[in-house]
Design a protein that fits this description.
Family: Belongs to the UDP-glucose/GDP-mannose dehydrogenase family.
Strand content: 5-15%
Bound molecules: nicotinamide-adenine-dinucleotide, uridine-5'-diphosphate-glucose
Pfam families: UDPG_MGDP_dh, UDPG_MGDP_dh_C, UDPG_MGDP_dh_N
Helix content: 40-55%
Strand order of the largest sheet: 3-2-1-4-5-6
EC number: 1.1.1.22
Structural class: alpha/beta
Catalytic activity: UDP-alpha-D-glucose + 2 NAD(+) + H2O = UDP-alpha-D-glucuronate + 2 NADH + 3 H(+)
Low-confidence stretches: none
CATH architecture of the largest domain: 3-Layer(aba) Sandwich
Oligomer: single chain
GO molecular function: oxidoreductase activity
Mean pLDDT: 97
Number of domains: 3
């Protein structure tokens, strides 16, 4: 089938590549010329495991192409996926200007039937708004479908190729048949295809992300309480997760949730509630707790150094908002760095993928080490912000040698408490007893 994907970021590029992989003829449109030129040269502009191989294979086959021309894109596909940004605006609502801007173009440019499929995360009523915006400019027949995306960065290709569910929100039988065809390879492999009205589909996405953010926030609060009563949150979470009604996923405590989705989506649902005179009290608490959780290690670091951080060299391992991505949007590391810099610390960091993005954002406010051990040279403490695999089984003897003092503040609970004791570290983590 001929498919166009508008917006070639984490969602659009993965969607386009994976749909080409199942035999479709895909044209990806992006407004960013630099990005499109890179992709035309066969380069993936983001770090996403497994993407490069599929990307190269499908470009070679001629099924995956790129353009900056929206007109070319709209002439190409019968199905037009919108994978455009919906960032947080200054009030916490989803900024729909990208989506509605493209809807205007669609209205002005389409010359035959199209199914416009919204993959962006958008508030209830957006599909209707897109429909009305297009209709202002055309009498052409078209359908608008809500088809929220649930992939996770770092696992995006796997999540797209083997989704647990595919949600199609529309009452158009014609659109349903076309989308069922596109998604047949996945439903044949056991993915559930759920068809519902578009409003419920739009809300399912926000409700899912907000639920997961709430689950993480709940265990973070339990962790904070563990610290006060001397319990170990790792034991508590294992005990809780053994109940299949609770489940053990998304129950890892740490320095808060970040990324391009949870923070903005929880705020957007809260804001949508307000617009309907409904106060999502729970979400208000989630937003609030997460804000302080992101810097939960800072008072511990301050306490350890007796309040004096000026001129102290602190090493940071992990800058990305989570492992297996170069994405630093809303990363807890950035909050941590902001506070430590304010307190006068000198920061040297290491991340396997995200250093170029942080360098672009922070310039020379912090330094970047060539590897994880070099970052520790003469540092008075190590702070761990992201649970990259390479940090999980490090050479503790080497770490101790490099660090000026053997002190670790771990925001992701990577190490065993007994091991830290026998290796001779001062070790402070989240929701577990301090080792000293
Ligand atoms: N990142 C994720 O893991 C994820 C997962 C599920 C859903 N979502 C949702 O999907 C949407 C896209 O997210 P993303 O992370 O892929 O965003 P992104 O910022 O990585 O990519 C968006 C792309 O759209 C392009 N763009 C902007 N305006 C354009 C226009 N007028 N025409 C063509 N291209 C244009 C940008 O240049 C960029 O390449 C958001 O609503 C997000 O909430 C994201
Ligand atoms: O037990 C956990 C799990 C996650 N996190 C944090 O939560 C954030 C988000 O993690 P994750 O959900 O793995 O990453 P995303 O790529 O942001 O994916 C989320 O957001 C996407 C965009 O909407 C959705 O499509 C996905 O289903 C949803 O998981 C990260 O900061 C993690 O460190 C925790 O602190 N504890």
């Amino acid at each position: 089938m001929k498919i166009t994907v508008i917006g070639t970021g984490y969602v659009g590029l993965v969607t386009g590549t994976c749909l080409a992989e199942t035999g479709n003829d895909v044209l990806c449109v992006d407004i960013n010329e630099e990005k499109v030129n890179l992709m035309k040269k066969g380069k993936v502009p983001i770090y996403e495991p497994q993407l490069e191989v599929l990307f190269a294979k499908n470009i070679k086959s001629g099924r995956l192409n790129f353009t900056t021309s929206i007109k070319e894109g709209l002439d190409h596909g019968t199905i037009i996926f919108l994978a455009l940004p919906t960032p947080e605006d200054e009030d916490g609502a989803a900024d729909l200007s990208y989506v509605l801007g493209v809807a205007e173009d669609i209205g002005k440019m389409i010359t035959d039937y199209k199914v416009i499929v919204g993959k962006s995360t958008v508030p209830v009523g957006t599909a209707d708004l897109v429909r009305k915006t297009i209709s202002k400019h055309t009498d052409q027949e078209f359908d608008v479908v809500s088809n929220p995306e649930f992939l996770r960065e770092g696992y995006a290709v796997g999540d797209f190729l083997k989704p647990e569910r595919i949600i199609i929100g529309t009452d158009s039988e014609r659109a349903i048949q076309l989308l069922k065809k596109i998604y047949k390879p996945y439903t044949q492999m056991g993915s559930r295809l759920l068809i519902m009205d578009e409003k419920s589909s739009e809300l399912t996405k926000y409700a899912s992300n907000s639920f997961l953010a709430t689950k993480i926030t709940f265990i973070n609060e339990v962790a904070n309480f563990c610290e006060r009563v001397g319990a170990d949150v790792d034991m508590v979470r294992i005990g809780m997760g053994a109940d299949s009604r609770i489940g053990n996923r998304f129950l890892f405590p740490g320095i808060g949730y970040g990324g391009s989705c949870f923070p903005k989506d929880v705020k957007a649902l809260h804001k949508s509630g307000k617009e309907e005179h409904y106060n999502f009290k729970l979400l208000e608490a989630v937003i609030d707790v997460n804000r302080s959780q992101k810097v939960a290690l800072v008072p511990k670091i301050m306490d350890y150094f007796g309040g004096a951080l000026k001129g102290k060299k602190i090493a940071i391992w992990g800058l990305a908002f989570k492992p297996e991505t170069d994405d630093i949007r809303e990363a807890s590391s950035l909050d941590m760095i902001r506070d430590l810099l304010k307190l006068g610390a000198d920061i040297v960091s290491y991340d396997p993928e995200a250093m170029p993005n942080v360098k672009r954002k922070l310039g020379n406010k912090i330094s970047f080490a060539k590897d994880m051990y070099t970052a520790l040279e003469d540092a008075e403490a190590l702070v761990i912000c992201t649970e990259w695999s390479i940090f999980k089984l490090p050479d503790f003897k080497r770490m101790k040698k490099q660090l000026k003092t053997p002190v670790i503040f771990d925001g992701r609970n990577l190490y065993d408490l007994q091991e830290m004791k026998s290796e001779g570290f001062y070790y402070s983590s989240i929701g577990r007893p301090v080792i000293h």
